[in-house]
Fold this sequence. Notes:
Blueprint: H1 3-6, H2 12-18, H3 23-47, H4 64-77, H5 91-104
Helix pairs in contact: 2-3, 3-5, 4-5
Amino acid sequence: MSSDQADKSPCDLRETLERVFDERSFVEFLNALARDWSEVLSLDAVNQPVSHSSGASRWENGSIGAFFDAAATWAEAFKNGLRFYNVPSNPWRRAADVLIAGKEYE
């Protein structure tokens, strides 16, 4: 991870998602998602919240299994899009959308 990547805040996650269009930008998104998760873990160590969903970072799924289950459920449910989401033609962006859904989808 480069020093400029390490300096980005979790609020940059959505901005990084919006820039996904190829493998390199997808990997940048993965790094941002990992940083966002690490921040939640750091906050948990200090604040000891009841669940990950109670934090400002909105991690609805606090285990890897729950994360992947939510991502897969969302991907299947919205494979044709929804009212405010059009399925992108770019597969890198679609993959990033599925992963962000794993973070936020209940």
